[in-house]
Amino acid sequence: MKSVITISREFGSGGHRIGKELAEKLNVPFYDKELLSIAANQSGICEDLFIKHDESYSSSLLYSLVMGNYTPSADGRINSAELPLNHKIFLAQFETIRSLANEPCVIVGRCADYVLKDNPNVINFFVTGNIIDKKKRILERYDIEKNKVEDFIRKTDKRRAGYYNYYTDLKWGEAKNYDLCLNSSKTGIEGAVDIMLRYIELKNA
Over 80: is that where the pLDDT of 76 sits? Predict the structure, then answer.
C-alpha cells in the first residue's frame, strides 16, 4: 500500500476512530493529535502552543505563501524567522505533514488534504454523521451537560470549518474536494472502514 490517507471529519462523526482502525488494518502509522507532538519536537516550539492553536485560525498564512509574500530558502522552505508565532505554528504543522507523507500513513484533520494536494498518492475522505449519533458519541467521550452538547458540536465544527476555509482556497466538507464522503450514521464505524479499504484497493489496483 503506497497511499497516504487523509480524513476530514465532523465533530462526533467517529472520524478519529475510523482513521485509527483504518491505519491498523493497513498496518501504517496513524496521526491525529500525535502530529502536534511531532511538529513541536521538529520545530522547537512548545507543544502547548500547538494544542492552543490546534485547528484554529488567526491569519491567512497560506494566502501569503501563495502570493509570494515570504521568500523561500534554497531548500524550498520559508524563512520562519520573519513570521509571527501563529504562522510559525501552522507552517511547522504544514512541514510535518509533508514529511510524514513520504511514507504511507493515515492523517486526520489539520488541512492535510490541502497540504498534500500535489501528492499523487493521496486519497482524501470526509466523514459526516447524523446529529443524534454525534451527540451520543460526544456524551460518551466528554463530561458535558446533555443540553449543551449540540451547541458544543456546532461550535467545534464551525471552528474546524473556519480554520480549513481560511488557510486553503477550498470549502470544508464540500463533497467535490474529497475522493469519497461517508455518513458514519449510515455505514457504522466498521462499515466506513471497510468502504475506505475497498476504495483504497481500487485506487491502488
Answer: no
